[in-house]
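Problem 12. The chain below contains 371 residues. Write out its predicted structure in token notation.
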Amino acid sequence: MKSYLTSATVLCLASGAAHAGALDRTGQSVDVLFETGRYGEFSFATVSPDLSGNTATPFLTNGSGSGDISPSYTVFSAAYKADINNTWSYALILDEPFKADVNYADGTGYFAQGSIAEFQSYALTGLLQYNTPTGFSVYGGLRLQSIEASAAIDFAAFGLDYTAQADRDWGIGYVAGVAYERPDIALRVSLTYNSEVAHRVNTTETIVPSPVPFGSTTEVETPQSVNLAFQTGVAPGTLLFGGVRWVDWSDFDLTPNVYLGATGGSLLSYEDDVYTYTLGIGRRLNDTWSIAATLGYEETNGSFFTNLGPSDGQESIGLAAIYNKGNMKITTGIRYVRIGDTVTRAGPFAPAARFDGNDAIAFGVKVGYNF
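Solution.
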């Protein structure tokens, strides 16, 4: 029963991957800690966003469309959990917690045409859990994380022709949490804190008309976050589950030195924190098959965004099917996301563009095995 219950939350995989707030992609789940015995899993999601906008001021070719600026992308994670004894357990988690890819096509007449940006991260998290006979547990560990980024900004209206390449850098953060479980009613509540991870990234910048690249160090922190997750049985074979995730995106700022000097603004930053709410229900059909459905919500804040991150809130719905056979379970999930309407800022122009009526579809697969 516990195996099924944990599998039902795979929709959080598709939810996190499907264009969640800012650069968030996996939601940094620690659910693997609550699997039974020795267990391994691999998750894969593919996301197809449709994200486009139109300029909103006559000074930037009013009405010209950007075209679809967000290519499809994939996200993966893998995890392993084992019991040391009746009291202690440990887990290793490999994932891509933060990711972005923006590409403004040439030939659209849009003021940012030809601009591109990528942000990539990988994280390896090691966790140790102490379990008490009363159902309470505490857990914590370290996270080793790498990031790299690149951008080419061509804002002809401002005479800005700029590129940046931020080399891969490694940083260390930590995870701490507490949980309570009551197996007889399938109850579990967990609260997890993920610290910020600081990076000092060697950055090479070029800006026209200077023919000489500029080298510098860019300081950036991926944000701290808190995950509150719960599940409980509401009837035989039926599970209610969900959670709230807070991410401190208002403290995130990626701005290399030359870009700051040339524009006076941030290359990529966010004005508001992001709260993601998820609620779902799962139902066991028989010993082999289970199904689940979820709803997701992020508030639209109405703030101005940079043109490298025009996504403000979301609403989503997802479905999943879980197949159990022996020690193996295979979960597939699909999620539709309506991306919140967004306005952007470019130099002195706010709003510079409006991004309306956008959405995304995510498909995820998770394979888990108890050894």
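Discussion. The CA atoms of residues 193 and 226 lie 5 Å apart. Students who got a different answer should revisit the alignment rule from Section 12.3.
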